[in-house]
Automatic annotation (TrEMBL), chains A, B, C:
One of its GO terms (molecular function) is beta-galactosidase activity. Residues 1-300 form the Glycoside hydrolase family 42 N-terminal domain. The keyword Hydrolase applies. It catalyses: Hydrolysis of terminal non-reducing beta-D-galactose residues in beta-D-galactosides. This is beta-galactosidase. It comes from the Bacteria. Signal peptide: none annotated. It is an enzyme of class 3 (hydrolase). It comes from Bifidobacterium choerinum. GO terms for cellular component: beta-galactosidase complex.
Length: 591, 591, 591
């Protein structure tokens, strides 16, 4: 408070130019030289004070960068954005070309005319290229700030590894964590459970994605909750058993440390209703007993040698691209109901229903060693990604590409000539138009049935031609007036030694994808578990360099399920027997 | 961008006083002398440059005035609003009288105290008279700006006709187009289709309204989309056939030119997902083929002589008043669910169900030559309108007046003594109270059934007395506690040589009106087609001074319908045979 | 308008710092020295002008303080808030301790760092202690302003009693009226009916609460509507009979004067659609006839001697605490669906269903003479309240305490060790966790059934232990995975000579409470009317010091109900006979 009183110029401004006042947290702009000076002085003083202290095993710098100050529209930010654009584009003409400023008379003649995307009036629409770049810039400025703090620490205590807690879950996209992950000594994450039916799947998905950013090396779970959080509109508690099960599942997905926000529940302040290891109710409480039990479980796992082991690579990769999500958030798209993040999770869940635990994999990392690559609504494409996909498929890999992929280049400029752009030769289909589906207008088309029993909502493609050697696996069934009846919904196309399936059908949801996977896999020439019990148990395997293998089994249902044959020594058996897993049950086996 | 950088004082301010920053479009205030100077210099330079160029057949000035800068609350606007009030009212006492400033201590002692309706805090309520005048003022300022640009052009190229594209559709009310229409050499309009069931009816309605503003002279369709737009939350595409059908229907309604936004779909920018004549998919596309086919159709129509012909006048006029809509948008009315624009469209559709294509007619134009005049929620009335209605009905014309008509004078001050004000003698009913209907409060009255099977929602009148010679055509059926059971819902009243029906029943919707029209027309002594197939085909006739008659037939259903007997030479037969019209079918006949 | 033109510094600022412009009403900040100077000058001039005028029987000062200017975030407000904190806490360390500023680095080193809770960015969370204090401060500043005006009047006309109109209804919590009531010579209230099913009960509840603030002395009904208001989104009219019935019910609840906003409906201005004693329709109208009839009824009541009589004290008190409501409005609680105000009303209605008209009683007044005290979601507790409850129950009184009571101290800091805090010994249960219920997340727990047939929504407690002598009256029935199946839902606990019931079950609604009251009362050892007709009639009794008793009977249903035996002289019989009450019927008897 004293700093913001002495230096109000460190406070962020919102898009209207209004001061974001102190009284909560993160009341600072990443581009403020004044704040930076004070912050680095603090870093230096603290590090020098604690240098050599035996309890310091790692520095965790800052907290959830960008949680509240992701975007800043101040003049500091404006100048920094101008510099960032100069750095990226070199000339103002290159900016004009990238952002398509000829449209709507937005041509810039000077870097000084570049503004953050400040308030343009209700119902007006921002330039997509500028908006996408501002998201990149905002991630970069926070990263630069983190790096400056990190460098002070590293200078004084060069042997202490450094991290900062990311906020990775299925519906988060604040920062470009695949980029940030290059700047930490090890990845750490904050994860808060999704209440209800998606609890376990979303948690596993997020863990897989964290592992993707960490390049499959072990990571830390820095924050989670023992029970309810406080920041949702309604904050359901965790049901009994979930506290332990969730931590074991994070471990299964690659976590080598399980921490919580927070040790002791705060009596006061904005988060006083957030659960903790030691709750407001005190030590005599279910939560504290479970925390103690978890401690024993984690000790057992550590003693069994799980630390340092790595998640076994899946045969299937689901590609994730935060920048595609950023671009698809623009208000003037075919449908605001299409947001990129739902599709990767839906594919992850659909595969789990067939007993396949997939790897969620950042778009810009290597895809080597996967037999199947899923491209779910990867809206932005460049030649590099297209070439890699082409090369992999040509070499025998199977690809599944969905609607709303390869729509635009890295500056959010549409590919011309039909979609998917750049990779039409791979998938062997040509999309002329999007077909948004909505119940917003009485009488408008609000869904499309597929011949395989699945159903598309929100968005589908209109495929008006396919290559001669493209196989149509399923078609749409719709009123003749819609112009979609009988059009391709799922296709497969031989390309080199591999096959690329194209999922025209739009948003099928996890159920619709699960229903479609058998025919897709059949066309890809791959086997797939397809009985009703296939998805009962989530299996995850961690492997140690020393040869030890740890198999984790979890119940994906809300009823008891049968345990598959266990091969190895049981280390943990929580809410389970050798034959039955209770709903929150978990088994860990070592062999 | 250079101009807003050099002269930020041209940027509008929103109601909170916040700058509306550039980065989208229309970043200028209509009252800025600086912007005006630059804009007129541009007009002059451009006109002098192109003067005499043979390709210039007309000037289309600006683009969609007021689309994004309709309201400006800057100090420039404040001063201009003070001048506008001084011009309109003469004295500050006249302003006080007009706005009823005695209420809530708003008495003004100086024109300098007049403010635009800036932010007054959440949950507070603005003065209705001031708000209505600010809407008039905002339309006037944009018109004054347009006229200044126009005058520069007219001075240099006096023989080139001038227009600007209006934004007229059923749910638009940005500007007073009946006033603007006096300032263009010919009217032109931008129209974007309503997805779903109202597609064809709303389009025909809008065309009829454009014709009303154009005083039934031919007009230009300046913009429409070949398929999806980009600015809705969800943007359904046009179904096959609608591209051609819509253009033929605009032609039928009076358009002599069919243009599109846009020729070539933009790769970049805020509207890149907006369809175009040449779509992103390229020339090998359904859209481009349809555009070419439409070109041939339009050539055939031109060769057949349709240009310059006028829409045949209907026997029924539906009165439209944008200022009534403006006034009824005020937050403190009987029900915010009542907005004027839905009612004229509902009447248009209901008549179409009985094979009557009506003329939508501005309130301040002549109503001569109509046999029936519908007054649907014309909330504002003055003596002139009342006198005209009285004179017409007395002379034999039939009138249908609905609930929420003649509620207030032109300054939005209530008529006293019972509603409808000024014309109670004509309709022969007296309304004491409004009866809002809502499901917002459990147990509150949320609808009223009529004895004729129709049903009222949102708002009804409480008619506590009718004249002795008023005929009650239908009554309400409701719980006795509501105090509305048995009250009049539809009435008719002989007045002079005519009859005036009063539709008490509130918002009946198009279905309820269609169901009520037979008994209304019976009471009015008029015939009405009333079989199930009467509304299958929309018929529109254009007549040329040389005697040529063009009849257009369209299918209003989503299934095939029978074609009525064709009398004349078929010029266009699209998705149709001589006996059957497909859902998007159209036939044009010349005789 | 001239004042805000001459002194714009009197205008409030909203939380963003934006000026709240004039053009509606209450355009002033309570802490402005400039406005205060002008306002007091006006008070003085007016009072001196009218001093001695025989028509002045009372001063009604201002109008609905805080209706639109409750919160002001200007620099004037900031300085006053700093002074208020200095006054309340003495040292900045005491502020830090009260607000828990250690959390989120909010430690203050100087009173000058204290800000009003200005805009902190979307999705960030304010400090609860500061927010609660700002609500107290805002109530205090308006009260201070009122008192200053009052004191001018009292100085000049010391014999004229002074009041100001409060805004008390079930869903209002703008000011701390129990505190304000100490500053008026008699309480007066503005009450506007709730349309639909809650109309009569909410009105009676509000009247009872007004009586609580007035310490059961008679009060004035300063404003109500004859029919519709204008400020809701939809404004249903009053149904026939409600105008008179409502006024009689206000009288029954303790009103000695029945006034209306407004005498004559305004033609113009923001409230022109607000009903009045003389409506826009004129004197020949149902409303005006009813007003006249009401006048006769009120005269009859006055002549019968009802003035000055007091509401007979109920055996049951329902405790009300506006500050608990203020605290529970904070965005980061277990569930934003829990707001304190619904619970007292639900209990009032549930008791009415069993023929008990309860007293709604402020938490900080005496609870003497009640046999039963209900503590419904009284979220804030201090030692004083806990001691009083303990003392009463120990002495034989029955208490019913609900979920979400005694959660935090007066600075909104949680009680530790299990809830309810401070009074766990009285109720004999210990709550470890809240159990929010929601349909927001598919598959999450959205309700809990009780073994007695009631059902909890929104929030329940998780009671993990009860004292040995605690009796479990009902349990939850829920899926085993939820961890709530079989847990206590209703309990009773002997404490001294009394019994305290604890309603774990969360929000049961009026129906669920009504269904649970029989078993609760049975456990409390109290009788309760429990037949289907028990709730048909609302009975209220006023008693005069001279021994006269006035019994008021109202129909709580929307159909005719039977009148209980009448004992005494019938003074009013409106929409009723001696045997039947019509839905809006009322009977007043004197004995």
């Amino acid at each position: 408070m004293w700093l913001t009183q002495a230096h109000p110029e460190v406070l962020p401004r919102d898009e209207r130019g209004d001061v974001v006042w102190p009284g909560a947290r993160q009341h600072w702009r990443a581009t403020s030289p004044v704040f930076r000076e004070h912050a680095l002085r603090l870093c230096r003083a603290m590090t020098e004070h604690y240098r050599g202290h035996p309890a310091i095993v790692s520095w965790h710098v800052g907290n959830e960068y960008g949680c509240h100050n992701r975007f800043d529209y101040s003049d500091d930010a404006m100048h920094a954005f101008q510099d960032w654009c100069r750095e990226r584009y070199g000339t103002i003409d290159a900016v004009n070309e990238a952002w398509g400023t000829s449209f709507w008379s937005q041509r810039l003649t000077d870097f000084g005319q570049i503004l953050p995307p400040r308030f343009i009036g209700e119902g007006n629409f921002p330039n997509p290229g500028r908006l996408l770049d501002f998201k990149r810039f905002s991630s970069d400025m926070l990263k630069r700030f983190y790096c400056a703090e990190r460098d002070v620490l590293a200078e004084i205590t060069p042997d202490i590894p450094i991290t900062t807690n990311f906020m990775i879950s299925a519906n988060q996209s604040a920062l470009d964590y695949d980029d940030w992950a290059r700047e930490v000594d090890f990845v750490s994450n904050d994860h808060y459970f999704t209440p209800g039916a998606q609890h376990i799947d979303e948690l596993a998905y997020s863990g897989s994605l964290v592992g993707g950013f960490a390049r499959r090396r072990p990571w830390f779970l820095m924050e989670q909750s023992t029970s309810a959080v406080n920041w949702r509109g309604v904050n359901p508690r965790k049901q009994p058993g979930e506290l332990i099960r969730d931590s074991l599942l994070h471990t299964a997905m690659g976590a080598d440390a399980i921490c919580y926000f927070q040790w002791r529940q705060s009596r006061a302040g904005a988060e006083k209703f957030h659960s903790a290891m030691l709750p407001a109710a005190g030590e005599d409480s279910r939560i504290f007993y479970d925390v103690c039990e978890l401690g024993a479980d984690l000790r057992a796992l550590a003693q069994a040698g799980v630390l340092g082991s790595r998640l076994r690579r899946s045969s299937v990769a689901i590609v994730y691209d935060v920048q595609s999500q950023w671009a698809s958030e623009h208000p003037t798209t075919p449908s605001r109901d299409v947001r990129e993040w739902t599709e990767p999770l839906d594919w992850f869940v659909a595969f789990a229903e067939h007993d396949v635990t997939t790897d969620v994999t950042p778009v810009h990392t290597t895809w080597d060693d996967y037999g199947t690559i899923v491209i779910p609504c990867v809206y932005l494409f460049d030649e590099d990604v297209a070439d890699r996909l082409r090369k992999h498929v040509r070499g025998g890999v199977r690809a599944i590409v969905t609607y709303y992929s390869a729509i635009a280049d890295m500056n959010d400029r549409l590919f011309l000539g039909g979609w998917p752009g750049l990779i039409g030769d791979v998938v062997g289909v040509r999309v002329e138009e999007h077909c948004p589906l909505t119940s917003m207008y009485p009488g408008a088309l609000d869904h499309l049935d597929l011949s395989n029993g699945a159903c598309a909502h929100d968005l589908a493609d209109v495929v008006t031609s396919v290559d001669d050697d493209t196989q149509v696996l399923a078609t749409f069934t719709a009123p003749p007036t819609s112009g979609t009846d009988g059009l391709p919904a799922l296709t497969a196309h031989r390309y080199g030694d591999g096959t690329a399936a194209y999922v025209v059908a739009g948003k099928l949801g996890a159920d619709g994808i699960a229903r479609s996977l058998p025919c897709l896999f059949d066309a890809l020439g791959l086997p797939l578990a397809d009985d009703d019990a296939a998805g009962d148990v989530l299996r995850v395997v961690r492997e140690h360099e020393d040869g030890a293998v740890f198999e984790f089994l979890f119940n994906r249902r809300d009823h008891d399920v049968a345990v598959p044959d266990i091969d190895g020594d049981v280390i943990i058996m929580s809410h389970a027997t050798r034959t039955t897993l209770a709903p929150t049950g978990a088994i860990v086996v070592r062999r």
